[in-house]
Amino acid sequence: MKQRHTVLIVDDEKSTRDGLARALRRHYDVHVAEDGPRALEWLSQHPADVVLSDLRMPGMDGLTLIQRILARTPQPTCILLTAYGSIETAVEAIKRGAADFLTKPVNLDELDLRLKNALRARSMEQENRHLREQLDTRFGLDNIVGQSSALREVLETVRQVAPSRANVLIQGETGTGKELIARAIHQLSPRAKAPLVTVHCAALPSNLLESELFGHEKGAFTGATEQRVGRFELADGGSLFLDEIGEIDPALQVKLLRVLEERNFERVGGRETLDVDVRLIAATNKDLKALSDEGRFREDLYYRLNVVTVTLPPLRERREDIPLLLQHFLQAFNQENGKAIEGFTSDCMNALVNYDWPGNIRELRNAIERMVVLARQERLTVRDVPPHMRAADDEPKALPVLPDMSLEEVEKNMIIKALEAHQGNRTKAAEQLGISRRTLHRKLNEYGFRDGSSD
Ligand SMILES: Nc1ncnc2c1ncn2[C@@H]1O[C@H](COP(=O)(O)OP(=O)(O)OP(=O)(O)O)[C@@H](O)[C@H]1O
Ligand SMILES: [Mg+2]
Asked: Ligand 1 pocket test: which of 183, 362, 365, 366 has the largest number of ligand atoms within 8 Å of its C-beta?
């Protein structure tokens, strides 16, 4: 059965209220109110799809009422009823957010039509909002955890710039989520179906980076035995993510500038000029402006890249995000490791919120993974926090070797201590314990620790 919509009629004249109510009752759930305050009161208790309000009413006029209604959620669709001669007011009502207006005396067929239109527009708008939320969920914004105003601002910028082809420069310390944001921008853009190609500019020496970016022809240099298609070509129609852009040398900066200005280039050793349609997203943990002021990064390139800047603040400047991130990663690693750790003791939470996280979210993620893998109780305690992350007064007593402990328990504690001392590095832990890596591995399995952490 089709769901009936709810209509609230607000009019100070009883005859109009009753007339409209009678006409609409067949197809709608109709309620009436004789003035603005009563309408608002009814709406505070009930959801309505449409409010049909008279303009001139004693006490609160229709314009004010509509404005008050639209300031709350959920918002009903508002239609204003006006007498002849007050069209200007009606226009004003539309400006303030009313969906439509009707002149009195109301023609009932007209009313029926306008209501249907308004409801159709309303459902389309709801559907759009729903789709947008779904897109957020599917594409990146949903897995970006955090509620701080700094992060919310970043996400708002991402939503705004994603649909354009403006180049974006993402700045932030290591581990703050630059790559995550780059992906989100691509996924929320019309290029989402085309590839997002990533190049880590610091990973390659300059000459190799050049042929990585632009490709090369066979025989272009020693070792160029085949033609190679560069990343710019691979990203055609999509986005190119240049990570650690601050690291590219001056000669390559010039070439990059040219592609950005002219949207074409040649392969290394090639004559043919290739056109590309690429949206560039660059990231850096350096202060690119400072580099350019020092003359180490071309200013013109800086301005080309930096059409829009997204700056990710370090985690220690948005500590309110830490508990959310801790919960998020706890859940993720519980699942991955088949564990059911419930949460954090308050001391533990305090220690983690107060730590400075120089490696930002990546460091936090890794820390939680280790803590979850190593944890022996249903809650994580200060003792589970790696020692260098605790303030001096959070220092727990050393893992005890007590007379009533079994040999197995002592061994287990020693293994945990050794792993902690070496940030989970098994080779080093095994060395310290004087056992082979293989033996350590077997013992970890015996004690039910997850396989596959770092070596
Ligand atoms: N807000 C966030 N919510 C959830 N996970 C996040 C968030 N920010 C970052 N991460 C995660 O933290 C890790 C590091 O993020 P990312 O690789 O994007 O950082 P980065 O700024 O590119 O670091 P680097 O400068 O070292 O390359 C990734 O695993 C990423 O998924
Ligand atoms: Mg990165």
From this structure: 362
Domains along the sequence of the chain with CATH:
5-132 (3.40.50.2300), 149-313 (3.40.50.300), 319-446 (1.10.8.60)
β-strands 5-10, 50-54 pairing = parallel
Sign of the torsion angle spanned by Cα atoms 150, 153, 159, 162: negative
Q: Write down the pTM of the prediction.
A: 0.61
Q: How far apart are the CA of 181 and the centre of ligand 2, in A? A: 10
CA pair distance 417, 190, nearest whole angstrom: 51
Q: What's at 387, amino acid-wise?
A: P
How far, in Å, CA of 62 to CA of 13, rounded?
13
Residue with structure tokens 């853009």? 189
Q: Give yes or no for a contact between 378 and 340, defined as CB atoms under 8 angstroms apart.
A: yes
Residue 442's CB is within 10 A of a number of other CB atoms, namely 12
Indicate which atom in ligand 1 lies nearest the CA of residue 180: 18
Please say whether the beta carbons of 61 and 38 come within 8 A.
Answer: no
The tens digit of pLDDT for each residue in 172-223 reads 999 999 999 999 999 999 999 899 999 999 988 888 899 999 999 988 888 8
